[in-house]
Every structure is written in C-alpha cells, then in structure tokens.
Design goal:
The complex is a heterodimer. By secondary structure, chain A is an alpha+beta fold. Chain A has five helices and ten strands, in the order ββαβββααββαββαβ. Chain A folds into two domains: 75 residues, Ubiquitin-like (UB roll); 148 residues, Alpha-Beta Plaits (2-Layer Sandwich). The radius of gyration of chain A is 19 Å and the shape is globular. Chain B folds into four domains: 101 residues, 3-Layer(aba) Sandwich (Glutaredoxin), CATH 3.40.30.10; 210 residues, 3-Layer(aba) Sandwich (Rossmann fold), CATH 3.40.50.11540; 84 residues, Ubiquitin-like (UB roll) (Roll); 89 residues, NADH-ubiquinone oxidoreductase 51kDa subunit, iron-sulphur binding domain (de novo design (two linked rop proteins), Up-down Bundle), CATH 1.20.1440.230. Chain B has 22 helices and 13 strands. In chain B, strand 3 and strand 4 form a beta hairpin. In chain B, helix 6 crosses helix 14 and helix 20 runs antiparallel to helix 22. Classes of the chains: A alpha+beta, B alpha/beta. The complex binds flavin mononucleotide (FMN) and iron/sulfur cluster. The site of iron/sulfur cluster has 14 residues of chain B, from helix 19 and helix 21.
C-alpha cells in the first residue's frame, strides 16, 4: 500500500506518494524547478544545488531532487532570493572553467546555456577563475574537454548505474576536481570503457563530445539511443 | 549506581606491574616516581631518550625505590619535553636528555606524603574529566587503566543496567557532542536505539582536521582505553555489535596505541564476544583517513569507511537511521566517548551539575597562538575567555595587547576583547558569531591582521572543499580571490559588498557543513573588525603590518 501525501508547492495543493521527491511531484504538476545534475533514470546526488527550495518551518534550503515529500509540507520554489541564488550558481559554473560558447560543439544544444537564458543571466560579476585544464582526446571515438565540464557527474553515474562499467570517477578536491577514466589513465587506454557513448549522450555541456563534430554540431538528439534518460537539452524544432 | 552487583564476574587476574618499555620493573612499592610524557609532541622532542636515560641515571644513583614511567600528555605541550614528579607536583619543562641531574636530585629528595607544591594556575584552573588519566597512566598499560577505575563503568552497565537506563543516564547528564555542533548525545543514542535495522554500528570520529586542534589525538595517545570503554557502553546502549574508530593516518602514534589497546582489551575480555561474560558482543576496528578535512563530516566519513571517495551526501537520511552500509549508525566524537565512563561511574546528575544551563561538563581546548602557556586545557563549560587566556594561558606573550580569540576552526569566528568576560559554551559562542567546533582556540594579539586570518581560513576551505557542490567548490575560491585582492590593497568597496553577498549565498546553498561554515570567518571578522577591511581597501594600509600591500597604480 502506498501512502499519499498532500502538501503545497507555491501555494497550490499537490499530492505525491511515499518516496517521491519534491522535484518529481513538481514536474508532474507542471511546476518548473531548474536542475542540472538531475537526470531522470539516474540516482540523485543533490550536488548542483540549483533545485534548492524553501520549506516552511525550516531555515535551511533543501534540494528538491533528494528531499522526499511529506504530509502538509509547504514548499516554495520561486522566491526572489532563490532565483538570485540560482543565477549565481550558473554564473559560478561559467566562471569556474573556460566556457566560450561561440567555439563549442554544444553551442545551442547546451543545458548550461539554456539555463543561463532561462534565469536571465546577462552579465558576470564574480571573479573569474578559469585555470588551465586539459583535454583528453585519446579515445578513438570520443573526447573530453575539461574546460567545459561542470562536475554534474552524470557521466559517472550513467557509466556506473546503466552501463555497469564504472569507467568514470571523480578525482581531486576543490576546484581541482576532475572526472577521470580508470583512476586517471587516459581514456584511450581504459580497459573498462565499452565505448557505448552513454556518457557523451548525457553530458549537459560540450565537455564530452563525439569526435568529428564541429562547432554547434554536438546535438544529443541525433541518435536518441537512451530514451529512458529524459529531460536533456530540448532541441529546437527542425523546420 | 551500584558498583558491584551480586552477579559481577570476577575481575581478570592482575599481572605483575611492568615499567614502561626498556626499563626494569621495580621490586617493591615506589617511594617516588618520575612521569615522562610520551605523547607525540614530547616524543618528537626526544622524550623517549629522556625516559631511558633517566632510568639509567636513577639506577646509577642507587635509587632503587624510584619508578620511571611513561605517561600520556602532560598538557603544557609547547614547553616539552615534560617530566613530572607526581608526589610533589614538580614539573620539569624543556628537559634535555643530557641534563637530567636536577630531576634525579629532586627524586632523591621526595618523601612520601609530603605536601604538594601549589599547582600553577595553568593546572589548578582546569577541571579534568575527559583527560582525567592523561599524564597519570601509562597509555599502553591496561593494568594502569584498570587500576584508575577503568572498565568499572562498563562492568556496572553490563551487570546492573538495562540499555534504556544507560541512555537515560546519558540524557540526564546533558552531555552534548564534542565534535562541533553540540547535538545532545542522549537524544542521538535514543534515535539509533529506536531505528530499525541490524546490525547497528558505532563509529568514533577521530578525524580531527581543524588546523591547530589536537585534543582528540591527545586523548587517544594518552588514554585509549577510555575511548574503547565509552564505545562499548554505547554499543550496549544502542544495540550495536560492530564499531570503527576513524582516525586520520597523520596520527600514527594514536593509531598504534589504539590498536594495541583494542588488542589487549580484547584479550582481557573487554571486547569481543560475551564481554565480561555478558551477552554483549562488540568488536572494534580502526579505519584510517587519508587526511581530507571533509572526511570528518559524518556522511563523508561513512563513505570513506565503506571504501569510497569521502564526499558528503545530503541528509536526511541521517546516519542514525541509515548510516554505514545503510544501517543505523551512531557517530560520536572521541571526546564525547571519553566522557561516557565518568558519567556512568559518577552518575548523570553529577555531570549535569557541572557547566552552564545549556552546556554541561567540560570542554578540552587546544590553546595556541600568542599566549604564554600553549597546550591542552580542559575547562568547565562557562569558564570565561579571560580566565582561559590570562589565568590559564598566562596572558599574551611579550606583554602585548589582546586582540581576539579564534574558535571553531575554519567554520568559526574571531571573538574580540569586549567579550573576554563571556563564559564559553555552545550558545554563547554562536551568539557572538563563532562556533564551538572541535576545540581549537587561537589567541591573537595586535600583530595579527584580521583580513589575513579570514584569508588563511578561506584558503584552507577552498583546498579542502570536496568539490561536489558548485557553491562551495567555486564560491570558496572566489571568496578567497576577493580576500586576496583586499589584502593586497587592490580591492574596491564594491568587492567588499560582493564578498558579503557571495558569502551569504555560499552559506545558504552549500551541501554540507564545510561550505555552510566556510564564510563564517569573513562574517565574524567583518562584524568586529570592519575598520581593518576598510583600512586595506580605502587607505591601502594593513594596520597590523602583516599584509604586503602593493603600491597604488599610477594614473596615466
Ligand atoms: C567539514 C566538517 C568537518 C568535521 N570534522 C570533524 C572532526 O574532525 N571530528 C569530529 O568529531 N567531528 C567532525 N565534524 C562533525 C561530525 O560531522 C559529527 O557531527 C560529529 O562527529 C558527531 O559527533 P558528536 O555528536 O559526538 O559531536 C565535522 C563536520 C563537518 C561539517
Ligand atoms: S559544501 Fe563543499 S565540502 Fe561539502 S559537499 Fe559541497 S563541495 Fe563538498
């Protein structure tokens, strides 16, 4: 038997079942909460912090993707402060490494770009970090440009949870963190990688891309072979 | 509490008393003893040589009734190596292995029952509960610990109390977690006891990563059996069967003493199956941390014990409900466990009688910085900062003026002179914008620059951030860039305003306590020392003369 909880999001009454996250119920009810690390079908880590919401009675902000619904909770997702925080997070992600959309394979197919637009981020204020980081193009089919990686670790999760290869993992600390293949060996030398391309498919930016694609050609929808993984960058209609 | 219930099993047979490693045992009772500190800071200053040489010289002088003994921390760490003659209370500091005559002479003069020398305020103002055996027993000797009442509490718990009664006693004591946030220990134990799942685990958090803090290390090095006893009592109270001590690998001596203690406690029947012939079975194992500060955070610690990368996860679920291997897990700090045995022995009401209305008992602090006496202190909750800095600490070195005291490590804050008469407890520290933390206490005088202090802690946080969540990973680096800009004189008032906005955002949106606490040093220094920030920005001078201010750019 599943228990149903009724509660409120932004003042309207909604219902969710035991074990559902706030994010899932919000999505069902057409309430948009920006997300980045979340991907339907993968486990949630609550790490990008974009989906943080306010719950009445708690002074802390809580991520909608990992917080389970409970009876009578009163959730608010759109306060001005929250929107400001979200904009700052996107700004941080842009300034952390080196995102130059004009020369990126994912230009116009990028979750980061879309969110910046959605949240009306029109200029940067914070200090730029942009350290020199590398590219690993040793794999025959794919490459990773760490400059464009925003550490959502979707690749790590899809490789572990769906493909079962666990080629990807995370190394380092602070702004020195990187996703790495096979404990830090070059991707081309990885013995666990099955070259399935799932990591490339789920990457929200142009960090992971198929070789041979040029600027703006990194559409993830050309070969929709992971239909169970939803909510990736919505492609503009081809006319 | 009844000390010996009728069914109390016989105490294990006493083995003949051994002197410390490398020394011959005494034949008769000792007339006088010399305690040589062999905790790591004295050891690194050759205190083991001192122990051996002193042993030789004592026998060379024909003092057959003088015992030379290895003990744990004698607290006044910065003046080590330390040797104490407990009969008279004399303490010899900065002892050199080739200059032991004064100690031998003093030992020859000791007459039993002699009046003790009045203790220096550094010692007399302290109240020792968690460190009661520190510097008084040989940390590697189970017999020594048992002689001082060790494992009595475990025995009485197993023979005459139900688990619920134990938890009640801990709740009554008002003990709060010594690992930082001060969560009520009794409440935590009750939650774990009520959580559904088997097996349950007990974890002792000995990761101690705050810069300058070494309380937990000292407890483990000086009295490891006490922590084991506390953990075993906790295991009985919450129904756990396995325990881990998560200790950082940078503490090799603590780890080795702990391992020895676990081994000999197991052989003597204080750990293992059927502890003291009761139904309680409890094993303890040591897990080493690789030196990441964030691994002290409980969810990261659990990930690390499981063999994964030590990154925090979102709570709830709390470890008390789903912790190690998703089982109910009790995590407490070393010092929290060190307080358990005395509470059981003397009763929760006794403990609740010490301290302030909200914070009971004592707290161990690592007193460091610009005070005369630096070392380890254990004081009653509610002791004022003035007593700590000026009576116990002996005041500021070179007679300079006191400026601030930093508590709470990288999530803490700086408390200015106007609060010197404030009693220290969990609430009062938060009230003035700081934090209890694990117990680091750094005293600063007018030669410390507050911008530089904030910059130092932000540098620490940005390196120790696990990199999982964007606000902390990127935000701490950006805050550090802004602080660096200020300290070089290159910042504007806009930068200052931006730093405050960014700090608030990092505090609110970060995933774990590291990011949430990281902006605190900025906020507390801004609260009390904003003029110093303005001096750096507007006048381009560092009032304390610490920061290297670059000359203003020449307009073209
Ligand atoms: C970044 C971070 C570092 C921490 N480091 C430690 C530590 O070194 N030792 C410790 O006992 N607790 C540490 N804690 C607190 C633990 O998460 C936990 O609250 C504590 O071990 C609980 O024990 P207690 O209830 O006995 O205090 C840390 C917390 C955070 C957020
Ligand atoms: S706040 Fe910092 S340390 Fe904590 S999870 Fe986020 S990045 Fe890691």
């Amino acid at each position: 038997m599943t228990t149903v909880h009724t509660f409120r999001i932004n003042g309207s009454d909604v219902a969710g079942t035991d074990g559902q996250s706030i994010l899932a119920v919000a999505t069902e009810n057409g309430i948009d909460i920006p997300t980045m690390c979340h991907l339907d079908g993968l486990s949630d880590t609550g790490s990008c912090r974009l989906c943080v919401v306010e719950v009445a009675g708690s002074s802390k902000l809580t991520p909608a993707c990992t917080t389970l619904v409970s009876e009578g909770m009163d959730v608010s997702t759109t306060s001005e402060q929250l929107c400001g925080y979200r904009r700052t997070i996107i700004e941080m992600l842009f300034l952390e490494r080196n995102h130059i959309c004009a020369v990126c394979v994912a230009n116009n197919h990028c979750d980061l770009q879309n969110l910046a637009e959605e949240l009306k981020l029109d200029h940067f204020e914070l200090p730029v970090i942009a350290p020199k980081v590398g590219i690993d193009a040793s794999h025959a089919l794919f490459a990773i440009d760490h400059n464009r990686c925003i550490m959502c670790v979707r690749c790590v999760r899809v490789c572990d949870e769906v493909e079962g290869a666990h080629t990807w993992d995370v190394m380092g600390s602070g702004i020195g963190v990187r996703v790495v293949t096979d404990m830090g060996t070059p991707w081309g030398e990885s013995t666990s990688c099955t070259s399935c391309g799932k990591c490339v498919q789920v990457c929200p930016t142009g960090a992971l891309f198929e070789k041979g694609r040029s600027i703006g050609e990194g559409s993830k929808e050309r070969r929709p072979f992971l239909p169970y993984l939803k909510n990736q960058a919505q492609e503009p209609e081809l006319t | 509490m009844s000390e010996s219930a009728p069914s109390a099993p016989p105490a294990p047979p006493k083995r003949p008393r051994r002197a410390a490693d490398g020394l011959r045992p005494l034949e008769g009772p000792a007339r006088a003893s010399a305690y040589v500190c062999e905790a790591v800071s004295c050891l690194s200053a050759q205190s083991h040589d001192i122990l051996l040489k002193l042993g030789e010289q004592v026998s060379g002088a024909g003092l057959k009734d003088v015992e030379v003994k290895r003990v744990g921390c004698l607290l006044l760490c910065a003046s080590g190596p330390l040797v104490q003659i407990p009969g008279t209370g004399q303490l010899f500091s900065n002892v050199r292995p080739d200059d032991l005559d004064a100690i031998v002479e003093a030992l020859a003069d000791v007459t039993p029952g002699e009046q003790r020398a009045p203790e220096a305020p550094f010692f007399s103002r302290q109240r020792r509960i968690a460190t009661e055996n520190s510097g008084r027993i040989d940390p590697e000797s189970l017999d020594d610990y048992v002689e001082k009442g060790g494992f009595e509490a475990l025995r009485s718990v197993l023979t005459s109390m139900t688990p619920a009664q134990v938890r009640e006693e801990i709740t009554r004591s008002g003990l709060r977690g010594r690992g930082g946030a001060g969560y009520p220990t009794g409440l935590k134990w009750n939650t774990v006891a009520k959580a559904v799942g088997s097996p349950k685990y007990v974890i002792c958090n000995a990761d101690e990563g705050d810069p300058g803090a070494f309380m937990d290390r000292s407890v483990l090095e000086s009295d490891p059996y006490r922590v084991i006893e506390g953990m075993a009592i906790a295991a009985y109270a919450v129904g756990a069967s396995e325990g881990y001590v998560y200790c950082r690998a940078e503490y090799p001596l603590a780890v080795s003493r702990l391992r020895k203690a676990i081994h000999s406690a197991g052989r003597a029947g204080y750990l293992g199956l059927h502890i003291l012939d009761s139904k309680l079975g409890f094993e303890v194992d040591v897990r080493l941390g690789a030196g990441a500060f964030v691994c002290g955070e409980e969810t990261a610690l659990i990930a690390s014990v499981q063999g994964g990368r030590g990154t925090p996860t979102t709570r709830p679920p709390y470890p008390a409900v789903a912790g190690l291997w998703d089982q109910p897990t009790l995590i407490n700090n070393v010092e929290t466990f060190a307080n358990i045995a005395p509470i059981i022995r003397k009763g929760g009401a006794w403990f609740a009688g010490i301290g302030t209305s909200t914070s009971k008992g004592t707290k161990v602090f690592a007193l460091a910085g610009r005070v005369v006496n630096t070392g380890l202190i254990e004081v009653q909750m509610g002791t004022t900062l003035r007593e700590i800095v000026f009576d116990i600490g002996g005041g500021i070195v070179d007679g300079r003026a006191f400026k601030a005291v930093q508590t709470g490590g990288p999530s803490g804050g700086c408390i200015p002179a106007e609060f010197l008469d404030m009693g220290v407890d969990y609430e009062s520290l938060v009230g003035v914008g700081s934090f209890m933390g694990s117990g680091g206490m750094i005293v600063m005088d007018e030669t410390s620059c507050m911008v530089d202090v904030a910059r130092y802690f932000m540098d620490f946080c940005r390196e120790e951030s696990c990199g999982k969540c964007a606000p902390c990973r990127v935000g701490t680096t950006q805050l550090w860039i802004l602080l660096d800009r200020i300290s070089h004189g290159g910042a504007t008032l806009d930068d200052l305003a931006q730093m405050e906005r960014l700090g608030a955002m990092v505090q609110r949106t970060s995933l774990c306590g590291l990011g949430q606490g990281a902006p605190n040093p900025i906020f507390s220094t801004l609260r009390y020392f904003r003029d110093e920030y303005l001096a750096h920005i507007v006048d381009r001078v560092c009032p304390a003369g610490v920061c290297a201010i670059e000359p203003a750019p020449v307009p073209v």
